[in-house]
Amino acid sequence: MEYTYTEIIGYLASLFVLLSFFNKDVKKLRIVNSVGCAFFVVYGVLLGSIPVIITNVAILMVNAYYLFVKKND
Question: Considering the entire predicted model, what is its pTM?
Answer without folding.
Answer: 0.91
